[in-house]
Amino acid sequence: MSVYQVAKELGIEEALGKDFEGKLALWQVMARVIGQGSRLSARLAQIHAAGDVLDMKRGFDENNLYDNLSWLSENQAKIERKLFELRRGGNKPKLFCMT
């Protein structure tokens, strides 16, 4: 199973979104799993065919990657909420009083 397939099954792709920023964020996650390195090394997407796998319509450079980190920071709460909802399966938690 590929790193991309695992990200899809865990809902990471859906939580990040399918726009350019979401796809770039997903690439940064995948690049980190594939190999530990700097954000600059994540720029080597062409070698790993990430652009094709993620259906990215345009290329990116290290400035896009650093800007994307800001986007992730600004959207962190929304992304975490979405992941929680996806993993919870839409069921609301039930509380029981055991006293």
Listing every helix as H and every strand as E from the N terminus to the C terminus, the arrangement reads: HHHHHH
Our Rg estimate from Cα atoms comes to: 16 Å
Q: Overall pLDDT, averaged?
A: 82
Tally the structural domains. 1
Structural class: mainly alpha
Number of strands: 0
Fold and architecture overview:
The chain is mostly helical and 99 residues long. The chain has one domain (3-88). The protein is built from six helices and no strands. The radius of gyration is 16 Å and the shape is globular. The mean pLDDT is 82.
Descriptive key words:
single chain; 99 residues; mainly alpha; 6 helices; 0% strand; globular
Topology (SSEs and partners):
Layout lengths: L2 H8 L1 H5 L3 H15 L10 H4 L1 H4 L8 H27 L11
In short:
The chain is an all-alpha fold. The chain is built from six helices and no strands.
